[in-house]
Amino acid sequence: YELGLFRNVVKDVNEAISLDSKCLRAHLWKAKALFSLGKRADAILAVRAGLDATGGWGDVVLLQELKHIES
Fold this sequence. Notes:
By secondary structure, this protein is an all-alpha fold.
């Protein structure tokens, strides 16, 4: 059941990112959901995409999430 919820989160945040690529929360939730689905490499890519899209805005939050995922 939880895996289905995480898949729905990924779907929803992908839509949010398509509407506003600079939405920091969408990138964070995408990374967290992917990580929870066991897709660590994809989660890392999601955080890095968030860093690129936000131009460094909110980078502390994203870098903390990246550190958490990579450890």
